[in-house]
Amino acid sequence: MKTQYLLTPHKHLKFSDSLIGLAGVVYASLLDKPKTIDEIWGELELLKSRGDWNGYISFSCLILAIDTLYAGRMVELVGNEMIVKSVDNIVNETDPTKSK
Length: 100
Description:
By secondary structure, the protein is mainly alpha-helical. It has a single domain, classed as Arc Repressor Mutant, subunit A.
């Protein structure tokens, strides 16, 4: 399947199967602390096994979802492995008068 069809939900793709939906779950998992890709993958597998996420999850889709967040400056890479919520977004979320 082409990436453009995976990116956003549409008639034949549920939100939970889209990269935007998966990116939202990844972003929410980074709210409490920075995580490695392996930790995020483990949390997604746990959500899937408990039935809390009914979307399709593959490791390549996880990487594409993280890339989507990175392209939107929503997450940053710290060191060689930790993924954190972007500091620029934290400033803009807490104080809407500040701009980049």
